[in-house]
Structure formats: structure tokens, C-alpha cells
Amino acid sequence: MADSDRLPISYTQHEPQPQPQPYPPRSHQPQPALKRHHTARYYAHRVRDSFTTRVTKVLCAVFLSLLLVVGIVFFILWLSLRPHRPRFHIMEFTVPGLAQPSGFENAEITFNVTARNPNQHIGIYYDSMVGSVYYKDQQIGSTPLLDPFYQEPKTTRIVYGIFGGATLTVNSNRWKEFLDDRQQGTVTFRLDITSVIRFKVSTWDSKHHKMHVNCDVAVGQDGSILPAWKGRRCPVYFS
Asked: Taking the CB of the first residue and of the last residue of the chain, which one, N or C, has fewer CB atoms within 10 A?
């Protein structure tokens, strides 16, 4: 085939497209700080405020420390000078005639109780003391006990008493009740001691306090205190 029979082919040349240019990187250079100019009076004021604050803190710390020390001292004094009530123990309680057929004719009750002052630095004034004995919640005797006395700290005093004659109101019917209980093996009584006391701390005396001591006690067929009751502590309360 002749060259004239070929179709002419034209080629279109594409021009290269321009590439997008990246943005230039931002500059992170710090901005220049603004310069502030303060006067000498300003700096003097700052120094004075700082000194005042420090002095205030020191004074507050000293005050709180002193307050804490004073509180601890008062608490220790309160613990050491707080009065403790006396301690009473029933040691002896006897109805001698209980074992005798004719015991009613000479009815008598004897007892002794120990009074202990447990305080370390506090004494006790006993201005008065009265003992009473009860049977089935009925008073059958009463008598004054001891003259007024002062009890030193950490000491023990024996309180001794006798109910008999005019101080013991027991009739034949009451004595028969004693004997009936005796047949059961135990006769139960209650000894009450009432006293007006004052506490003494150095040169200071407290106000008067009315103190009550309740001692439950039982005797056997021979009229003597039973071993289980001997040395038992008696409750103490104030009114």
C-alpha cells in the first residue's frame, strides 16, 4: 500500500500542570516580652508585705503551740486532781443471838466496813456518818457512826458499828422471820451508810456532798457473815 493511503495521525502534546506549592512554615519565634518598669516604692511595698506575712505566720504558729501546751497541762491537772469517790468493803457482819433460842432478848447486830480514800493528792472530810440496817427493805436499826474526821490520801479507815437496844427495833414477829430464814440457811440484810463529805485539794475545799453506801450482806445459821459476802465491795453514789 502506498504511503498516500495511510491516514495521518496527529498527537496532542499536553502541557504539564503546575504543582501546588506548599505554604511556607509558620514561624514560632516568641514574641518579645513587654518590659515593665516598677518603681522603688513598689518593690519596697512588696518586701514589706512579705515580711508582714512571715511575721504573722510565725506569731500564729507560736500562739497555737502555746495553746496546745496549755491544753495538755490542764488536761493532766484535771486527771490528777479529779476526785474519786471513796471505796467501801463489807468485812464483818454478825447477828450473835441468831443461833440462840433466847437471842431475841438480847438482839444485836455488829459490823465493820473499810473506807478507802483512793485519791493520790486529795483528802476527804467526813462531816457526819450514819449507819442503818434493813431487812426485806424495812429499816430495823439506825445509829450514828464515828465523829467527824479527815482521811488522808491513799489511806484506809475502819468503820465499826453496833445496832442494839434502842438502835435496833426488832419485835418478836420480826425475830421469828429471822429464824425462818435461818432454817433455809441464809438471812439477808442490807447495811446503808450515809455521810456528808468534802474533798480537800491543797488549800481548797469542795462543797458538801451527800454520799450513800449500800452493802448487801448475808449471814449463815451461826449468825456470822458468809464467806461469799466477806470483802465484797459496796456501791457508792451521791445525791
From this structure: N
